[in-house]
């Protein structure tokens, strides 16, 4: 058992916050790679449908 949580305290151990943080970290890492490789950040998906 953990310590009791107050009613308005956020549940930071659930999957949603961890997933959100993972997405933000992945996006930041992708932006960094774009900056190093291209010199600018690509903020969209470029799909070529033939």
Counted by DSSP, the helix tally is 1
Low-confidence stretches: none
Question: Describe the biggest sheet?
Answer: none
- Work out the number of β strands: 0
Shape: elongated
Q: What is the end-to-end distance?
A: 56 Å
Assign the structural class, choosing from mainly alpha, mainly beta, alpha/beta, alpha+beta, or little secondary structure: mainly alpha
Helical amount: 40-55%
H-E string: H
Structural description of this entry:
Helices cover 48% and strands 0% of the residues. The chain has one helix spanning 15-38. The protein starts with 14 loop residues before the first helix and ends in a 12-residue tail after the last helix.
Describe the structure in brief.
This protein is mainly α and 50 residues long.
Helices, strands, pairings?
Layout: H1 15-38
Please give a handful of descriptors for the protein shown:
single chain, about 50 residues, mainly alpha, 1 helix, elongated
């Amino acid at each position: 058992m953990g310590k009791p949580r107050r009613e308005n305290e956020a549940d930071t151990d659930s999957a949603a916050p961890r997933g959100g943080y993972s997405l933000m970290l992945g996006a930041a890492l992708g932006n960094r790679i774009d900056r190093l490789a291209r010199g600018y950040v690509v903020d969209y998906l470029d799909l070529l449908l033939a």
